[in-house]
Amino acid sequence: MISPSQRALEHVRGLFPEASPVPAAPITVNFHPDRLLAGGATVAERLAGEGVYRSQFETGISNGGLTAYPGGDRDRWEQRMFGGAYTGAAGRPLYGGLNLACYPDGASPRFGSCHLVLAEAVSLRATFSHGDSFTEPAVVGTATTFRGVWESLLSEVARTGRALNLPAPGPAEWVRALGVPRTAAGRAMDDYVEAQIHGGLTLAADVTAVVADPSFRGTPVEAHLRALGSPLRWAPGFRLAAAEFPAELRGPEVPALAAAVGERFGRETLDAELVGRAAREPSTWAGFGGRAEVLQLLKYVWHILVLRGEPAG
């Protein structure tokens, strides 16, 4: 009897069976290390204690949508994408991005200020889609059947002049540009190859590096990230003056909240660590709505840091 993860992989291979290997690139898993879990531990603290990365179905938190429960949107998307392979909360796929451009802020920074860099072997048990699974993408692939996803990327370049937030005059130039070493953040907020990882993630076996926002230097988060057992590297990071948050990107409440956070903590400039502090005390911002509304607005604050922030390192 095959496992749910094997069933999911076989289902996706069957949709696009033509042999075509995935380009050599690491999967990265972006996350916010300082968000609180049930029980009061931070994400980084729990990772250090357990040595296992868990799905939204188990943690109950998300840096995207909060629909990971039986009958929720995430459950429905996974049922469709993976041929009904998964039921229950345990053993669900985990989500990251294929970092084809080797961006130092990871493949999908909208989901977190830090990221895990996964071992090459993890790609062999991953499925891929051009775009987030919430869009229910029609084109998917695996490490050995990647052609459909690759052609979707090249088509986007031909149509728009960019893919993965990497501009190029045409597909050939874009492919060459992928191999250029980068030190600047990619800021690929909405344009990434999502990786769905099947079979779990054990930090000791599956992670080759941890990359953190420099605002966490000297904090308990740094200590917990170092305890994960992989080399710790520093990303460029993002910082932006509270007065420079625009209203047009995520609505007028976001710059107002950014100003309130800066005032509360006596800081003119916001960064990942400060946004995390604000997220750990949502009742402080009750004037902006209930807990869920405040946390959503703080996600938007983070999005604008990624889109408009200057390097913090």
TrEMBL record:
<dbReference type="InterPro" id="IPR022074">
    <property type="entry name" value="DUF3626"/>
</dbReference>
<dbReference type="Pfam" id="PF12294">
    <property type="entry name" value="DUF3626"/>
</dbReference>
<protein>
    <recommendedName>
        <fullName>DUF3626 domain-containing protein</fullName>
    </recommendedName>
</protein>
